[in-house]
Amino acid sequence: MEKFKIKEVVTVSVATYKAKWRTLILISLLSSVISVSVDATGIVAKTMAFSPIKDGVFVAFIVLTIVSIYFTSRLSVALIIASKTSDDLGASAAYGRAKPVTWRYIGFAILFGLMLIIPMVLVIIGMQFGGLFSILWSIRGLLVVIGSIYSIYIITVFRFSVFAAVLYPHESRVFAYSKNLVKGNFMKVFFIMLIPLIVTLPILAISLIFKVNQASALIQIGASLLEAIPTVLIAPFSTLLALETMKRLEDEVMPKVLSESESESEHKSQVDDY
C-alpha cells in the first residue's frame, strides 16, 4: 500500500474544516472562553494587594480551575466527535455525545501528562536550577537536550492515544495502539504535528512575554485574549490534522497487523496439527 503524503493530509483537513467550520469554531470558542475566564481570575488573584477579597478570588480561581478541567475536556471530546463524524453534527449534539467518554479522556490525558514529567524535570533543571545544583553549563545543556528529545519522542509516539480513547471506548491499550500507528512514520507525524504550532508560536511568545514580565493585570488579561484568538481558529485544524493522519495510518498499518495475526494463527494451527 502506498504511504500517505503530508500534503494530502493537509488538503483533506482544510476541506473538512471548510465544511464544518461553524460547528468546530463554536466548540473551540466555548473552550477558549472557559480557559480565558479561569486565566483572568488567576491573574486578578495574583496581582491584587493582600486582603480578604484576594483570598476569596484565589479560592474562586482554584474552584474554577478544577471545574473547568471537566468542561474543557468534554468540549475537546466534542471537537473530536464533530470532526470525525460524517454527518452534519451540531455543537450541542457533539457535546451531548461527548459525555460518556469525557472521564475516560481525562484519565488518559493525565497519564499522557505524567509521561512527560521526567523529561520536563530534566529541561527545568538544565535551564533554571544550574546554580542550585552547581551543574556545569555543558551538563545543563545536555540535560536540556535529552529532556527535549525525550519529550518530542513521547508527544509524537503517543500523539493518537487520547484520540483512540475517544473513538474506541472499549480499547484499553490506547498508548500501544498509538505507538503501533506511528512506528515507521515518526518524522511524518512529527512534521504534521508542527504545522499548527508554527502558525500560533509568534502570538504565544508575545503573550508569554507579557505574563513573565509581570505586566499589569489588564495587560496580562489582554495577552490571554490575544493568545485565545489563534487557539480558537487553530485547535479545530490541529484536531482534523491528527484525525486524518490517524485514519491514513490505520489504513496503512492495520492490514499489516491483520496479515501478521493471520500468519501467526496459521503457524499455530500447523503446529497443533503436527
UniProtKB/TrEMBL annotation:
Give the protein name, as stated in the record: Glycerophosphoryl diester phosphodiesterase membrane domain-containing protein
Q: Does the keyword Transmembrane helix apply?
A: yes
- For this UniProt record, give its keywords in alphabetical order, as a comma-separated list: Membrane, Transmembrane, Transmembrane helix
**Which ranges does the record mark as transmembrane?**
21-45, 57-82, 103-129, 141-168, 189-210, 216-243
